[in-house]
Design goal:
Layout: H1 3-32, H2 40-50, H3 53-76
Helix pairs in contact: 1-2, 1-3
């Protein structure tokens, strides 16, 4: 794969991982919680219960993607 394509793929994966935290918390809130009220504190508790591995993986993937994109631009010059 070319560096630019790989970089874009890593940035896309980073966005997907970042968004998946919120999708999982929303799904737990809608399905798992017995309340129908969307409470700010309840949602933050659910985000905390999911943990931060998805956030860390998305940050690492974003850094790698940006690195590939910068490398592709430097090769072009």
């Amino acid at each position: 794969m070319k560096k630019r394509t790989t970089g874009v793929a890593f940035v896309f994966i980073a966005a997907l991982l970042f968004i998946s935290r919120y999708i999982i918390a929303t799904a737990i809130c809608c399905v798992g919680a017995s309340t129908r009220n969307w409470d700010y504190y309840l949602f933050n508790e659910l985000l905390g219960s999911i943990g931060i591995p998805l956030l860390i993986c998305s940050i690492v993937s974003l850094i790698v993607g940006i690195g590939y994109l910068r490398g592709a631009e430097k090769e072009k010059e």
